[in-house]
Amino acid sequence: MERYKQENVHPLPKRVIQRDRDVTHLHLARRGLTFIPDLSRFSMLRCVWLNNNRIREVSRASFNCCLTELYLQDNDISSISGALRHLTCLQVLLLFNNQMKCLEETVSELKNMQDLHTLSLYLNPFTQDPDYRQYVLHHLPSVKFLDRKEVTQEERRRAFKLFGVERQRVLDTIAFGRRALPPPTGRKTTNSITKPVGQQGSRKRCTDSRSDDRENPSVPKSIIQFSIMNWTGSSTSQWNHLHDSSKPASGILTVKLG
User: Fold this and answer.
1) Residue 250 contacts residue 233 (beta carbons within 8 Å)
2) Tens of pLDDT, residues 91-103
3) C-alpha torsion 83→86→89→92, nearest 10
4) pTM for the structure as a whole
5) At a CB cut-off of 8 Å and minimum separation 6, what does 19 contact?
6) Which domains, and CATH codes, for the chain?
7) Taking burial as the number of CB atoms within 10 A of a residue's CB, which of 28, 45, 89, 128 is the most buried?
8) Are 90 and 111 in contact (CB under 8 A)?
């Protein structure tokens, strides 16, 4: 009887992954890694944990473009330039407690990630910049949680006010879907222009003013031109066929306003 029970006991079968494309999650944390192995063969890989290692460099060939979550915190990474920009599906990226020093370079690498909603960069040297948070929020508008803190609309407004000055200036000049240019004004010169007068070689100071613009052909002027067509005087096909010499004469009136 005991032998019969032993033969009929079937433990739960272990799931064995036999193909690389079956791997969707990979845990490589706390392995003492100094570099990231080539993981591109895992075509269905979605989440990778590489935190708490000694990784210094990140290679573009390490990950496939379908990755959605990447955990690289607590390493010695100094730069991600050219390594992550192809990960356009990335939604979660943790890079805190590394050695990255260039904020602009890091943010530029993440601009193509339109679905990135969770980002952690604290405990990197560039986070000491007082405008660090506003800079990231302005250039990465999809981020909803930055450094474990939810992004508010007030923060976004402050970021836009701080880093979107030029864009706001352009938006203020938009009228009816087209950019409205300011009226032409006279040129202003900061340096004095002198030129000789007469045969005595004496010099006088010459500066451009608004009154000189009318005599200077190089200054752009605003000209409005429109034409009025008298359609009642246009010849019809019947007149052309009959060669009627008595048809009314057509005319175009052109008016220029300078």
Assistant:
1) yes
2) 999 999 999 999 9
3) 10
4) 0.60
5) none
6) 18-170 (3.80.10.10)
7) 45
8) no
